[in-house]
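In response to reviewer comment 3 from the previous cycle, which asked for concrete evidence that the modeling workflow produces usable outputs, we include below a single protein chain processed end to end. The sequence was submitted unchanged, and the resulting structure tokens are shown without manual editing.
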Amino acid sequence: MYAKIIVEIGVKNVDKTFTYIIPNDLQNKVKVGCRVTVEFGKQILEGFILEILNTLDNIDYELKEIKELIDEEPILNKEMLELGNIISNKTLSSKIKCYQVMLPKALKASHKTKINKKMDKYILLDDTNSLEEYLKKCKYPKQKEILTNLIKNKELKITKLDSTIKTLLKHNLIKIEEREYYRYNYNTNSKDKKVILNNDQQSVINKVTNSFGTPKTFLLYGVTGAGKTEVYMNIIENAIKEEKTAIMLVPEISLTPQIVERFSLRFNNNIAILHSGLSDTERYDEYRKITSGQVKIVVGARSAIFAPLTNIGIIIIDEEHTSTYKQDNDPKYHARDIAILRSQYHKCPVLLGSATPSLESMARAANKVYELLTLTKRAGAGHLPKVSIVDMKEELKKGNFIISEPLDTLIKEKLAKQEQIILLLNRRGYSSMLTCNKCGETAKCPNCDISLTYHKNSNMLRCHYCGYATLKYNKCKACGSTDLKDYGLGTERLEEELKKKYSARIIRMDMDTTSKKGAHQKIIDSFANHEYDILVGTQMIAKGLDFPLVTLVGVINADASLNFPDFRSSERTFQLLSQVSGRAGRADKPGEVIIQTYNNNHYSIVLASKHDYLSFYLEEMKIRKQLNYSPYYYIILVSISTKDYELSFKAAKKVGDYLRNNLSPTTYVLGPTMANIFRINNIYKQQCIIKYKQDNKLKQTLYNLNEHYKTNNKVNVEIDINPNRL
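The workflow returned the following structure tokens.
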């Protein structure tokens, strides 16, 4: 017998299987989807079995035997193997990369560290018939103590086999049972609260539940605080009642603690958690809970869409508009697309939920591709907050550079009432740049075309692209002047200014304060327990978090996201402002929002202040139509990167010319241009943008381009279909 095996080798996007002989002692054990070790040249590699053969076609290399079978049962089932083929075809990525992305690190082919199950030992009563007689004769207090405890508690956890336990085992009075211990702790301390659903929520639940067994996609547009999470949990409850399983995706780790707590309170131990904040061992444990059928619900970030559940009844994607659902490296998949593929396989509905749906999703709903469901009012006693826009151009004249007068007044008012405040500034660090006032030299990253960000707590200048860091210097490296000034505002400096200005307990939540394991949950829990009055943070505090005492949200520098050269900048600005505004007034206290901006007439800011998503959608769609952008046109980003500056121009021009010469005349190819070359980590990057509606030549052209550059060691070409950012 023979096996076709796919391995990951060091060539870009190579997609080839190799045939190996199955040894006699493994012929009844190997299965498609299992990992094996094989000899590949002088290396020992791990790979996946894709096919088992009884006979061979012509082979132009010497056959070798499989060395070792790693898995007793397949870790890639039939659905995952088929899904890998589809993803590979759609994203132009190799199959091995598509299979690897589905698995936790401990189960990937090529992972060298063996992770073992963690087992706990318990003792239980064995022979209860002779127990009473033994207790009468027993002279040893420790034995009596253990047996009495077992009679009361049925079982005891032990850490070692001491002489007392060995004696009881010898007399067949107790037995030992080993149970797997799962290393991830959900930390739920509160009780599940029974929520009375309103008619709109119940209507959404009924429509989705009635579609069980049908591969249908719903888009739930529900304002912030409309009770979408409660709707999700009720739909999942209905799926469990019908003996089906469920996947629930959330966009970021920062949202996970509160979501996990709510789900674990409702569903007890019937959930598994999958996100990048878990250690390798924790992910390994959670994954095996799924494969062994111990849980029916998986909650997690993007990669949880590959959870190997069977008989899936519902797939839910919360905050469906979020960019984190798209993977940036190969395979460049979108979790939404995978969800729809899996829904077709399992014949189950997909529910996409958001207060600010992506334009693409809303356009599909408008065209009846998705069914639109709406929740237009907040659940319970909550009302949407009052939002005010402050023109910072006028505030600068008064000397207010960071906190405007209206925001200052409200902060003092809320602190006096012992209510809580969230302040959003979507830039971490202390200041954006360090500049010499004498010669104008700015501290830049030696590896990237970008200024270094100053972090005062560590006194470091850091690059947020490649990770380069150096101590802040006191003399200009160009002219030697000591007249250095840091400009710009980051969360670290905002926190410092607030501590000077107010007598308040302040905590900061950004990538710098949440880098340690468990830091997200610690900050969220402490703020929820009112250990702090003001939460300062980047966009990670904008979505999904629910704090009843938060009655004021302030947005510092709302223009920041408008300044990116990307056609989605206005959409992202509207989404961010709407989402963070939604953190205010979620309980019985009214909420207020202050948006500080230098661009107070921009439609994305004005309409966000009015909670008017539909008007924003219509306005933005007009602009997208005029400029031939998504969702009117499909977009493909072709990135060309090389270490050589001169070669980058030649290679990019060659790629651009090839695309223009081989695609249909109705397809637009933009770039490359001299203006859009940039350097990240000493790699020069250029790009071409393809905009098309329908092009029969496109697939073959992209395939040929991809194949041509697979073995080119000097030029790397990456193709991103429907990219998140340009």
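Residues 119-180 form one domain. We consider this sufficient to address the reviewer's concern, and the full set will be provided in the supplementary archive.
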